[in-house]
Amino acid sequence: METIVRIPTPLRTLTQGADEVAAVGATVADVIADLESKYPGIKDRLCDEKGVRKFINIFVGDEDIRFLEGLKTELKNGDRISIVPAIAGG
Amino acid sequence: MSAWLGRRGLGLLRSRPLSGVVEAVGQTPLLRLEKVAREAPSVEVYAKLEFANPGGSVKDRAASRMMLRALEDGRLSSDKILIDSTSGNTGVAYSLFGAALGVRVALVMPSNVSQARKDIARAFGTEIIFSDPMEGSDGAIHLVRKIVEKDPEKYFYPDQYSNPDNPGAHYHGTGAEILDAVGDRITHFVAGIGTSGTIMGTSRRLREHDRPVRCVAVEPSDSLHGLEGLKHLPSSLVPGIHSAAGYDETMRVETEDGWEMADRLASEEALHVGHSSGANVFAAIQIAKRLHERGEGGCVVTIVCDRGDRYFAPMKWERRYVW
Asked: Which of A67, A73, A87 has the highest number of chain B CBs within 10 A, making it the mutation to test binding with B?
């Protein structure tokens, strides 16, 4: 299943500037693995050994995956994933 | 207990009658941190508790000075709308002083700003315009510029990132207050970079002091970070008021270290503070340890920007609740 992932400004150096990329996978974890194969290094920025880094917010549609099934959250056709950074400065 | 009761000086200062909420800005407490700094016993570490400002954050200083000076010289009047981009605390401050001074306020903020800050700003009657959360605070800056360009007469745009009254508030306030409190003892000052107003203005004042004070800026170590309010300069729009020559050193702090220190400040020092304050104190303690190991002693002053409750997110069950 193909999903569109919205990429925040700080990670666009890894996606050659793209603000949206396509990835495949049945769960959020699968999608992150697919992103890693296309854009090496991205998984490390999002996850540590315990899972998604505490300060990274991943949304499926409008829902934070913390309130769903975390990395195991299953994706439906047409779902959009957003990686939302914390807010900087002022 | 008797020592607490005996210390009346600050009590008198803070209990004086005020004619307006704007007058309550500044003269914040300076608290010695003994427990989290116990590995550097020969060094004094102090935190200036900026959450004691009426709007609950360090941003009250810059916002009130930018507004008062603009009202004075006519850039701002009751027929204009004050508009600026903010990650939250400056917005709360503008909103509070807008209500106090009879000025309408509109704010541009990324839509993922904490709910608490949106709600507080709105409580004062402020209009909020949301920018794309994926673009962060730079996205909010671009959007506010576009809105003002379309109708420049309608708005007063203080532009906290470029307004000299932002560092000016810290030159006249924060810096002077610190010298008043610790005088010649201060050896180091540590503050995070958001707009850079605090580090630029306070450092300028401290550098005029007759004894040298080393001023250290704190930045997140990575462009993708969780130290809300702090700016990773190499990957951001650099604020107009910023100059690297304004301070002596930059320390880069990992998100996890800032978060962990914020937790420790709550459980060990009874200070429940935001993550940027955690990063500031973490950096201050690194410096204190360095001084202690070298046997130099010293006095390190840093900033606690706001309280942690400003970042509370609704819990899962609360999010379904209809008020």
From this structure: A87
CA angle B260, A84, A34 (to 5 degrees): 105
> What CATH number does residue A74 fall under?
3.10.20.30
- Confirm whether A27 is domain-assigned: yes
Could you tell me which chain B residue has the CA closest to the CA of A20?
Answer: B134
| Pairwise CA distance, residues B321 & B149, whole Å | 40
Q: Which two tokens stand for residue B23?
A: 């007058």
Residue A89 lies in a domain: no
Query: Does A90 contact B85 at a Cβ distance shorter than 8 Å?
Result: yes
Distance separating alpha carbons of residues B176 and B209, to the nearest angstrom: 10
B156 neighbors B70 (Cβ within 8 angstroms): yes
Residues 6 or more apart whose CB falls under 8 angstroms from that of B62 comprise B90, B93, B160, B163, B165, B166, B167, B169, B170, B195, B197
Please indicate whether, in this complex, the C-beta atoms of B137 and A10 are within 8 angstroms of each other: no
Yes or no, beta carbons of A90 and B225 under 8 Å apart: no
Question: Domains plus CATH for chain B?
Answer: 2-57+164-311 (3.40.50.1100), 59-156 (3.40.50.1100)
- Average pLDDT score over chain A: 91
Domain coverage including residue A68: 2-84
B90: chain A residues, CB-CB within 8 Å: 90
Buried b (16+ CB within 10 A) or exposed e, B11-23: eeeeeeeeeebbe
Interface contact flag, A90 B135, Cβ < 8 Å = no
Determine the residue type at A85. P
How confident is the prediction for chain B on average, in pLDDT?
Answer: 91
Q: Which of residues 160-199 of B touch A (CB under 8 A)?
A: 160-161, 193-195
| Total domains in the fold of chain A | 1
Please write the tens of the pLDDT for every residue from A59-90.
Answer: 999 888 988 899 999 999 889 999 987 776 55
What distance in Å separates residue B8's CA from the closest CA in chain A?
35
